[in-house]
Amino acid sequence: MSSTRGRLLLGLSLGGSYSRSGHEEPAAGAGEAPGWHDLRLFFGELRLRAELGLTDWLAADLVMGLRMVVVGFQFQDQQRLAVETPHEDIHHRSETLIGPSDPWLSLRATRRHEAWTSSVRLGATLPIGGTTPNPFRLGRQGEVHQHIQFGTGTVNPLAEIEVRREVGRFVLSGWAIGKLALYSNRHGYQAGDLLLGGLRASSDLWLKRVRFLVGGVAYHEEAERWDGVVETEGNLGRTDVMVESAITWRFSGEWSVALSARLPVWSRSVGAQLSTPAVVELAIERPLKLF
Fold it and tell me: How far is CA 114 from CA 50, 57, 117, in A?
């Protein structure tokens, strides 16, 4: 196996997902009927990944993202027909938001023994993404506010473990990653702890330049807090199970391109939340030898 020391792997990916949600809005005043807030959201992210081999067993990873959120808002009556908003809505609006997300910085140690490979990654997210003041407090005061955030405003430690085994032309793997939110940011926001894991199988299926992957992913996130309180709305915690698949094509020398997708098959959430979106991603990468 060739040495990974001095090897820089650069990857650029573009991912997107779509979700829809809605909730009833109580009557704002005397003589007005309750309405319905219909929300359609598109999430897109351009992500740069860099992995540098420091030794044959230790690598440094950096993942940076530029995120875009497109929100389509419509006020509807009780029959779910679009109507003019009877007053300025302080909660939602049709808008497009763009900004950086929190980058992930980590070190990964890898050990290989015959057909087995294990790796452990330790790192943290950095508070670069934009955050907002407490939207629930502003909402109770009757002020315009924003629920969408691009970051957490805190340094969040993360850890990942992965075990792989080669079986002929197949590679079987299991992995898990956890990210902790240990304190609140300057706006009183504390994100929920995150746990993500799955099983995968990949193979070139006796093809020279193409590789296929299938797997399953389980995702669990705890409730967010504002000023130490779990509100009655927002992210109140959820668990999702998804299937994933990917196809990678090495099209020229060391260049490769991959198309992947994650599709939800089961979800359980607390309160009214966004439905679990399908996620599609297109990535291109190229390794370089620096030293």
Answer: 27, 15, 8
Q: Tell me the pTM.
A: 0.86
Whole-angstrom Cα distance, residue 47 to residue 44?
10
Residue 17 CA to residue 276 CA, distance in Å, equals: 9
**pLDDT value for 179:** 98
Q: What is the DSSP letter of 82?
A: B
CATH number of residue 280's parent domain: 2.40.160.40
Helix (H, G, I), strand (E, B) or coil at 256: strand
The number of folded domains in the chain is 1
Residue 1 lies in a domain: no
If one compares 31 and 111, the residue with the highest pLDDT of the two is 111
**Beta strands 194-203 and 170-179: pairing type?**
antiparallel
**In angstroms, rounded to a whole number, what is the distance separating the alpha carbons of residues 265 and 276?**
9
